[in-house]
From TrEMBL:
Residues 251-261 have a biased composition (Gly residues). Residues 239-261 are annotated as: Disordered. This is Aldolase. It comes from the Bacteria.
Amino acid sequence: MSSRIDVTVAERSVAWGGWVVGPTFLGPEEFARTGYDYVGFDMQHGYLSDADVALMLRRLEHVPIATVVRLPSTDPAPIGRVLDAGADAVVIAMVETPEQAAQAVAATRYAPAGVRSFGPLRASLGMDAAELEARAGVFVMIETAAALPFVDEICAVPGLTGVYVGPADLAISLGHAVPDMWTTPEVTDAIRCVAAAAKRAGVVAGIHAGAGKTGNMMASWGFQMITLASESQALRRGAAEHLREATGSSGDNGAGAKGYS
């Protein structure tokens, strides 16, 4: 058994994702209905508890969409809880060294390979530790200048599913303004380097694009897991388009997607 993200990438070459930052049942289901491949739940910047995430994951148990949860650190306890609740993968923020990446992997593995505690919360997950390990994908975020010299070593960490670029924090770390992150050569070169390192290591390259056009560009750069929009961005864009149609106005359709992460 492999993680659902790995399977999707193998089948379709690119997995397209939505993002959820607050408690909602409709958002993830609408992403699935629209044809997105995965939905991410944000426990770093979002307003979500692990109980919120567990309820939404349960709601999606029979919905054809993969699920990932972003967490702020390699602390094994919260990582284990969201995996026990049925998340298909975790995305660990602010990883800067191969040692930290190895800690993230260990948090998804049982002894002797890791430090995860056994305790699946859903009967449908089964009780086979090896299968539970195999279905748990683990991504680490490359989003600081300090991580860039170690990208190849991070990508080579055994058991890692992939790396995931946070372009906003990466731009800030490199000394550039967030609105300029897609047009500043130092930032875009760093982003391309991460994708290239992932390809060399044979792991999935992911990124927070924040908009469809940017997502298309990231796919051309070799990224295979691309988050397009959060539920608030999607709602704002749709609401603005309805208002534009109703009033006959033109101009900014309210997309406002900057690709923040």
